[in-house]
Prior knowledge:
The protein has 862 residues and is of the alpha/beta class. Among the domains are: 1-36, no CATH class; 167-411, no CATH class. The chain contains 30 helices and 12 strands. Strands 1, 2, 3, 4, 5, 6, 7, 8, 9, 10, 11 and 12 form a 12-stranded mixed β-sheet that branches. β11 (795-801) and β12 form a beta hairpin. α9 (194-217) packs antiparallel against α11, α15 (347-373) runs antiparallel to α16 (379-407) and α24 crosses α25 (701-709). It starts with a helix and ends with a helix. Residues 41-159 form the PNPLA domain. It comes from Pedobacter ginsengisoli. InterPro entries: Acyl_Trfase/lysoPLipase, PNPLA_dom. Keywords: Lipid metabolism, Membrane, Transmembrane, Transmembrane helix. One of its GO terms (biological process) is glycerophospholipid catabolic process.
Amino acid sequence: MRAKLDAQTDPTINLYEIEQFGKKVIKEPLKRAEEMKLKGLALSGGGIRSATFNLGILQKLAQLDKLKDFDYLSTVSGGGYIGSWLSSWIQRAGSVEKVTEHLDPKKSTAPLADEIRPLRWLRMYSNYLSPNSSIMSSDSWTMGMTWLRNTLINQTILLLLLLTALSFVNVFFYGWKMIAEVRTGANIGYEINELHLFLWSLAIVVPGAILSGIGMSTYHVSQNPRVKWSLGSIGRSPYLSTGLIIWAGISAYMITAWFYKVSDKLNCFECKVETLWPLVISGLLAMAIIAFIGRYYNMIPARIHWFKLTLYLGVSSLVATCAGILVLSGAWQLIGYLKFKQPLSNDDTIFIVGLPLILEAICVSVVVRMAVMGSFFPDERREWWAKMGAEVHRIILIWLLITSATLLLHDAFRKIFDYLIETYPGIFAGWMAFIGYAVRLAYLSGTSGNKSKAGKWDIKEYFIRFAPYLFLIGFLLLGVIILNEITSVFNYMPGTLEYYLILGVAIGAVTAFLSWRVGVNEFSLHYFYRNRLVRAYLGATRSVRDREATYNTFTGFDKADDIPISSLLTQRKYIGPYPLINTALSATDVSSLDRQDRKAESFIFSPLFCGFDFSPTSSASSSGSRTFQYGYRPSDDFSAPGGPSLGTAMAISGAAVNPNMGYHTSAAIAFLLTIFNVRLGWWIGNPRFNCWKRSSPRTGLAYLIKDLVGRSDISSDYVCLSDGAHFDNMGLYELIRRRCNYIVLGDAEEDSTSTCDGLANAIRRCRIDFGVEIEIDVSPITNKDKETRFCKAHVVEGKINYPGNPDPGKLIYVKAALTGDEPIDLREYFMDNPEFPQQSTGDQFFDESQFESYRKLGYNSI
C-alpha cells in the first residue's frame, strides 16, 4: 500500500505509469496520504560525517524501538551511505525488527560478535576510499593511479578535439587563400566587372535578407499549433539565428577573400567606394526583402499615408546601405594596407581580422537603419536584432581567439622561448603549480556546499576564475606545438588545403572513436567512488560465509555486495521503511525563470519509480526524441535491465564534486574539474525520452563538453545527476511532497557558521513548490555560548502546515551540535579538534576516534 501510494502522491506524475502496469489507482492520493498519518525519517548529506552521525541516530531509534514505525526513509549523500546500509541489512535479514535487535547497543551481543558484523565492518572501512592510508600502501597508489589513468584518457580526448579544431582552422585559411587566387568574372585582369560584382552581391545578400525577414515576421504571424511548417514556426525556430549567422560568416569569408585579391588594383579610398556602388542596388533590394517578409508596414501607425510609409522605409534603407558600403570600403582599405605594409604584411593577419570587419559592416547597416527609423521601429524588434548582434560579436571573439592561436601563437611563443629558454622549466612548473592549486580550491568549493554571498568574492574565488584562462592559453599552445610537429614530420608535403583537410578528418575520426569507446561516465571517478562505497556500506551487511565465497581476493571487491534498488519492495520480502534516495538533476539552462537560481531539480531513486517532477512550462520539444509528459519510470527497467543498483543510486546521491552541481555550478569550477577529471556525477537517460532505458550516452563527447562549460538541462536526451545536496541536502523535500505527518530529520551537514542553511533552503522550496509552511525555532541550536561554543539543545520541534489540513504535522530536527553534556571522550575530541562536529566534508578519511566521536554524538543527540 505504501509503495503504491508513493507512486501516486503527486497525481500529475505517475497515474499514466500505474495504469500502464495494471495497478489500481488510489483516488485522491494526497488526501489518502494525510489520512494515513505517514511517518518519514530523513538523513541529511555531509559525506561520511553525516553517515556516521546518522548511524548513532539509527542506533538510538532502534533502542527506542521506533525504526519499525517509519514509512519512508529519505536520504541524501552521506545520509544515503548509511540509509542504503540499513536498507540492504533489512533486505538480507528479512525484516526491520531483526535489524533493530542487533542495532540496539543495549540488546546486541558483544561488539565483536558476528551478529553485529555490519557495525564492525563500518569501523573497519571508516577510511573507505583508501582503507590502508599509508602513502606507500596499495590502496593509496591505486587511488592515485586510477585518477591519473582516467584523467589522461579524458585529456587526450579533449586534446584531440582541439587538434581537430586547429586543423580545420588551417583548412579555412588555405581555402580562403585558394578562393582569393581564383580568377572570377568580378576581377578579370585589372578591370573590375560591375555586372558580375552586382550579381555576386545579390547571391550573398538575398538569402541573408530572406532569413532576417522570416525572423522579423514572427511579430505579426500567429502560430497555428496544427501546422508543423509555417512562416511563424520557422521564424521562432532556434535554428533560424544559427542559419543566419552561418550565412553571414560564409558571406564575410568570401568578401574578405575578394578584397584581398583585388586590393592592389585600387589604391584610394574614394575609388573603392565608387567601385562598390552596385552594392547600393543589392543592398536596397535586401532591405526591401526584409521589410516585406518582416511586415515592416505593420509597424507604422495606420493614420500615416502610404507615401510617407514608403518614404520612411526608403530613406532608412538608403542611409543604412550607404553606411554599410562606407564601412565595407574602409575594411577593403585596411586589408590593402595590411597586405603591403611591413612588418604586418602577411596573409595570416588579414585572414584573422578580415572576417570580423565585414561582419561589423553588416551590423553597422542594421544599427543605422534602426536609428533612422527611430520610434517607428518597435522595441521588440530592436531586442531581436540586439540578441542577434550579441551572438555575432560572440562569434567574432571566438574567431579572433582561435585563429590567432592557430596562426600566430606558435611563432610568438617561439620568439619568447628563444629569449627565455633558460627559465622555461621554472615557468612550466609555476604554471602547473598555479593550475593544481586552483583545482584543489575548486574541489574544496564543491565539497563545502557553501554558496558564495552575492557581491562578496575573496581572493580564492578570483584565483579560481582566472585559472581556466591561464590553463586554456597553455592548452592552446600545446595543441599548436603538436600540430606544427605533426606538420614538420611530413615536411615533404606543402601546407595545403588538402593536407590539413585529411589531417583534420583523421584526427576527428580518432576523437569520435575514442569518445564512443570511452564514454562520459566510464572513465570519470564515479566507478572508483561507487565501488568503495559499495564495499564499505553494502558489503557490510553480508554474512562472512557468503562474502568469502565470492569476493576477489586481490582487489577486495565483490559485485554481489550490491543489490537492485527495485528489490526493496514488500512483495520482494523487504519489510522496512520505503527508501527514497535523493539526487539533483542539474539544470543550468531552464525555460522557467522562477527556477533559474536553483539550477537543479529533485531526482529520486526508489524501489518502484525513478525520475523527477518538472514544470509544465519546461518544454523538451527541442530534442529529436519523443517527449513524454511525465518524468518517472519504473525502476525495474530504468537505465538498464533490472534497473539501477542500490550502490549506483547511493554513489550518485553522494557525488558532491562534479562540474554540474546545481546552484553551486560555476563555469570556472566546471572547467577545472572536467579538465582534471574530478567528476563523480552520472549522465543518465532522460526519463522523459525514449532513451530512458539507457544508462549512458552512446557517445560521450557532447556531454563531456557540457561538463567542461558547466551546462545541462532537462531537455537533453541525457541528464546529469549529482549529489542530492545540490538541490536539498536534508531529504525533507520529497517527504513533504508525500504529505508525511511526522518527520524526524538528522542533520549533519557542514555548518561552521551555525545558520542551518540546508534546513532553511529545504523549508523555502517546500513553501514555494508545495505551499507547505514549516514553522520551527532553531535558536536553541544556533545561539552558541561565545566562550564554550556550546548550544542549548541538540533537538528542536517544528510544525508542518499542509494546505487544507487544520491539523499540523510534526518535524523533529536533530542537529550535529555540542551542548556540553556529552561524554568525556567527546569533549576530549572536541578540545583536540575545535572544528568538531563541523569538520570539512572534503575530509572523507576518518580514523577510529573520529568515527566513534560522530557516532556517539548522533546517539547522544536523541
